[in-house]
Specification:
It is a single chain. The chain has 2 domains: about 240 residues, Aminohydrolase, N-terminal nucleophile (Ntn) domain (Glutamine Phosphoribosylpyrophosphate, subunit 1, domain 1, 4-Layer Sandwich), CATH 3.60.20.10; about 190 residues, 3-Layer(aba) Sandwich (Rossmann fold), CATH 3.40.50.2020. It contains 16 helices and 20 strands. The strands form 6 sheets. It has a 6-stranded antiparallel sheet with strand order 4-5-6-7-11-12, with helices on one face. A hairpin with a 2-residue loop joins strand 13 and strand 14.
Length: about 500
């Protein structure tokens, strides 16, 4: 963000509002005079930043990030963002997404551009591509907005995959740009005092007193100079808006609006279309109660229950304060159970036919344990409905999903998945119905034209057009290394971390 006052507290507050996007690590960098000040570490925002750390972050421009592991070593301090290079000018960068050609770029950086990449993070690769392109366009001359846009055009030419980027150029200003498909979200807003803020979700702007202006378009770069002047240019050829549909299904906060689509309304709509699927499988007279699996399935479950005329009840209570499981000497490594994170209200299950509603089913292990918890609490029959279609394919654009073999729906029929989960009936959303439900939640008809969605984890169609079985296998090898004894911190390993 760019302001006329210290920004450390505002960035901290914005990161708290975006904590759901990553709990693995957090970092903030600020700029004052000719110097960057940085603090980053593993952990949640509230644990990474103490008063002494905040005091050591002076300056009126800055940026921050919460890390959600997608490539490299999830437990390396060095791979927490932001990343920094000292030339040209001095650059720091944060990146949301996943580069699909990171390894090829890394080799190219070393052999052709003579730049060294010191971590396994694709964000460091992206930073060095940007630095190299900036160096090429300026050639020792003063930096102009046109030079910045020329450099971003060079980035678009070389980089593949998903990337929403915010960078600071020392002594010049703030740069933000979004990949040509707009897979990952990015928006811009303004404070009453003239402060500019760029963030992944609108909730970060609104929650810090900024007015949401608009989403940054796919292939667009925004440069805000030190005088607070905004310069914009679409730098990618033929950009097309195809945002990741999993943002609406699960990842984004319900109070956010992404690319003109209300996340909350999208989830209500998903519940509406799911209700029609439920009726075709289980007569509503055979369902006594609808129970959501907290948190992000609640809007869908509420709408489904309303349309079917069935009571909606809270049957699970989530423990929000489950942290790491520490391995003491002599103890075996203990896998965290869903029962540590969720507890049942037995009276809502006893003697009833219950319909459990989840936002999605990924590995199936959590669903199986939850179904068993419902049975243990006395449920007569347990039906399971997913507001999303079967997850059959890996996501390569920045949502850390298991390998295909770990996806419960990969290569299996509906009946086979139902048997594994152990429910009496399993109802999935339809892919086309999901896309229609989300697109109907568009509140801003004047927003950028929507070409469609990236729904690759459901339909296997990757919008960047460069994904093959070989590239998926290669990216599997680049997935985060989980150290023995560390809890699996990915959100999809949790029973619906708060969305």
């Amino acid at each position: 963000m760019a302001s006329h006052a210290p920004v450390n507290q505002l960035i901290y507050d914005a990161l708290l509002l975006l904590q759901h996007r990553g709990q693995d690590a957090a970092g903030i960098v600020t700029h004052q005079g000719h110097k960057f000040f940085m603090h980053k570490a593993k952990g949640m925002v509230r644990d990474v930043f103490r008063t002494r750390n905040m005091r050591a972050l002076p300056g009126e421009t800055g940026l921050g990030q919460v890390r959600y592991p997608t490539a490299g070593n999830a437990f390396s301090e060095e791979e927490a963002q932001p990343f920094y290079v000292n030339a040209p000018f001095g650059l720091v960068l944060v990146h949301n997404g996943n580069l699909t050609n990171a390894q090829a770029l890394k080799a190219e950086m070393f052999t052709t551009d003579h730049r060294h990449i010191n971590t396994e993070s694709d964000s460091e690769v992206l930073l060095n591509v940007l630095a190299h392109e900036l160096e090429k366009t300026t050639r020792g001359l003063p930096l102009q907005p046109a030079d910045v846009f020329a450099a971003v055009r060079g980035v678009y030419h070389r980089v593949r995959g998903s990337y929403a980027v915010i960078a600071l150029i020392a002594g010049h200003g703030l740069l933000a740009f979004r990949d040509p498909h707009g897979i990952r979200p990015l928006c811009i807003g303004r404070g009453a005092d003239g402060t500019w803020m760029v963030a992944s979700e609108s909730v970060a702007l609104e929650g810090t007193g900024h007015v949401f202006e608009r989403d940054i378009a796919p292939g667009e770069a925004v440069f805000i100079d030190l005088q607070g002047q905004r310069h914009t240019q679409v730098c990618a050829p033929n950009p097309q808006l195809s945002p990741c549909i999993f943002e609406y299904v699960y990842l984004a906060r319900p109070d956010s609006t992404l690319d003109g689509i209300s996340v909350y309304q999208a989830r209500l709509n998903l519940g509406e279309t799911l209700a029609k699927r439920v009726i075709s499988v289980v007569p509503p007279t055979e369902i006594d109660v609808v129970i959501p699996i907290p948190e992000s399935s609640r809007p869908s479950a509420t709408q489904l229950a309303h349309l079917l005329g069935i009571p909606y009840r809270e049957g699970f209570v989530k423990n929000r304060y489950v942290g790491r499981t520490f391995i003491m000497p002599g103890q075996a490594v203990r896998k965290k159970s869903v029962r540590q994170k969720l507890n049942v209200i037995a009276s809502e299950f006893k003697g009833r036919n219950v319909l459990l509603v989840d936002d999605s089913i990924v590995r199936g292990t959590t669903s199986r344990e939850i179904v068993q918890m419902a049975r243990d609490a006395g449920a007569r029959k347990v039906y399971m409905a997913s507001a999303a279609p079967p997850v059959r394919f890996p996501n390569v654009y920045g949502i850390d999903m298991p390998t295909p073999e770990e996806l419960v729906a990969h290569g299996r029929s509906l009946e086979e998945v139902r048997e594994i989960i152990g429910c009496d009936a399993l109802i999935y959303q339809d892919v086309d119905a999901m896309k229609l439900a989300v697109s109907r939640a568009r509140l801003a008809p004047d927003a950028q034209a929507l070409q469609g969605f990236d729904a690759s984890c459901f339909d296997g169609l990757y919008v960047t057009g460069d994904i093959t079985a070989e590239s998926i296998a290669r990216m599997r090898q680049e997935r985060p290394v989980v150290e023995e004894g560390d809890a699996d911190g990915s959100r999809l390993a949790l029973p619906n971390a708060e969305g």
